[in-house]
Design brief:
Layout (H helix, E strand, L loop, with lengths): L3 H7 L5 H8 L12 H25 L3 H13 L7 H16 L1
Helix pairs in contact: 2-3, 3-4, 3-5, 4-5
Length: 100
């Protein structure tokens, strides 16, 4: 169950590929009247978390270039409005752009 895959990834129990598979997994929920906009928003929120925390894990491993690449990917997604990780990624990207 989401966001469990993020925690499992950070603990080293699963791969990033498994996290990305979980991003696209709807959990087997069948909705009577699915709303594509809500489904896309949910997927985008999961993707923001996956990219952000892969960047964080990369930074911890000393791979700053991969970290910043993930932060850029995260920030390039349409703002999901209530995911603080998107705003943190934006900060990291803007900070990196100002340093140069």
């Amino acid at each position: 169950m989401w966001p469990g895959p993020i925690a499992n990834y950070l603990l080293g129990d699963i791969s990033f590929e498994a996290v990305m598979a979980a991003v696209d997994d709807d959990g087997g929920i069948v909705l009577v009247n699915p709303d594509p906009a809500n489904e896309e928003l949910g997927r985008r929120k999961r993707l923001v978390l996956a990219l952000f925390y892969d960047g964080v894990k990369s930074r911890l491993a000393g791979d700053e270039a991969h970290c910043l690449a993930r932060m850029r990917e995260c920030y390039s997604l349409e703002n999901p409005l209530n995911e603080q990780e998107w705003y943190l990624a934006r900060y990291e990207v803007e900070k990196a752009n100002n340093v140069k």
